[in-house]
Amino acid sequence: MITIRIESFIELMDRVAPPELALPGDRIGYHGPEIEVEAVLVLMDYLEDVAVDGYDLLVLHHPPEVEPPIPYLTVHSNWDVADGGACDALADALGLDVESFLDPDTGVGRICRADLSLEELLERTGVLNPETLRVVNPREYVDRVAVVSGFGLSDKSLIMRAWSEGVSAYLSGDLTHGPAILGRNMDLTLIDAGHHATEMPGLHRLREVIEDFGVMAELLDTGTPWSEYRAAYI
């Protein structure tokens, strides 16, 4: 493992997750002074109870809600859409062959070839370790699958685009009531595997990319920010 200046580290990251790919308003980039980088901790989210002693830099996927105590670099939507980034990592984890972008204008999402029963596709999500799976419009067979890491099912415009592209199933996270009704009315199968679960393949790949720079990199999975309880009514 080597030590590199933060300017060189940022330059390397910009090659794999170009900042110009970030969606408008996304809070990406470096926050901190000039430092030497030897040890990096990769996180989906910064939490105040995460021990950061011994690390020079945090690489965060989500912009932090509270300021971390050490320098950090956020790579968010630019990593989601990058070639080989989070959306591609999700498709690879599911064993799907990428055919095209879901949204060519932004680079968000991938449309993949598939020749699977829905049951087989749901079984493949086991590699993501989802806490739950929610499915709208179950069907027996899927031939084309759209995937978006993280937020995709909260965005009605992406659901409409998936439907217009003729995919039979759309897998992502963050499904809410309105988008579920939209998918139901369009007879599009929606699979919500969770925001956290669908982003973890991209975080594992990000750690590998950083390690390829020659810098020591570790990934800490902080999990989902809530606990789930099932209400019991008598």
From TrEMBL:
Residue stretches spanning the membrane: none
Lineage: superkingdom: Archaea
Entry-linked Pfam families: DUF34_NIF3 (PF01784)
Magnesium in keyword set: no
Any one annotated GO CC term: cytoplasm
Keyword set, alphabetical order: Metal-binding
Chain residues that bind a divalent metal cation: 61-62, 80, 195, 199
UniProt-recorded Gene Ontology molecular function terms: metal ion binding
Family from the record: Belongs to the GTP cyclohydrolase I type 2/NIF3 family.
NCBIfam families assigned to the protein according to its UniProt record, in alphabetical order: YbgI_SA1388
Protein's name in the database: Dinuclear metal center YbgI/SA1388 family protein
Organism: Methanothermobacter defluvii
Lineage: Archaea, Methanobacteriati, Methanobacteriota, Methanomada group, Methanobacteria
